[in-house]
Specification:
The protein is an all-alpha fold and 263 residues long. Helices cover 73% and strands 0% of the residues. It has one domain.
Amino acid sequence: MITTYDPAHARAQMLNKVPAVTLFFWIIKVMATTVGETGADFLIFNLRLGLTYTSLLAGAVLIAALVLQLRTRRYVPWIYWVTVVLISVVGTLITDNLTDNFGVRLEVSTAVFAIALAAVFALWYSKEHTLSIHSIDTRRRELFYWAAILVTFALGTAAGDLVGERWSLGYLVSGLIFAGLIAVVAIAYYVFKLNAVWAFWLAYILTRPLGASFGDLLSQSHKDGGLALGTTGTSLVFVAVIVVLVTYLSITKRDVAVASDRA
């Protein structure tokens, strides 16, 4: 699930549009999922925009970020990670809208998003014969990639809320469950040689509810089972760390990936 940085390969890159899967990738990804959860709550409750207006605003900003991302001809760290953070926010809002505005049960939305993700993967594979992120070097592959990312965030939000809130296990226990599942995937990959593509996507899905659970644990009130640090403080701290890491990667190029046709 983690690839090493090779300067020689970096110089020979073929304009792959996504970063290499390094430890930095997973750290920023988990923090982005946390910001997606706390950031959405900040806009809805702290700024009092409400769920509907927050959804419209976040959706519009995400579209602008995606247009910018699609128009670049290479991987640009700040554009890529801004897009991921915004997709995290929108994925959270999609699930929240289904639950709060339309009364869809979390069991149903989790199942629907799982089916939708399977459909995206099936269509992607039927057209490209690979689900590898090491070869996101065409417009069609990039569109499939971002569609899958959006659905994984919505699925992860629904699954995290289902375990932590509907099943009343709490944020800490929920986070530990998803951390344990990620550990199982890592063991399956490193010890039992689970296919790298499937290992990546399983871990990617599971990091969403992991980050959301710990984001809620940090930000929510004591009566709701959190540490009451607030959505503002939690969001600012995590955004600051993301900015520092993305700046570092922009300078060092340590996450530059090489396009290939590996499955």
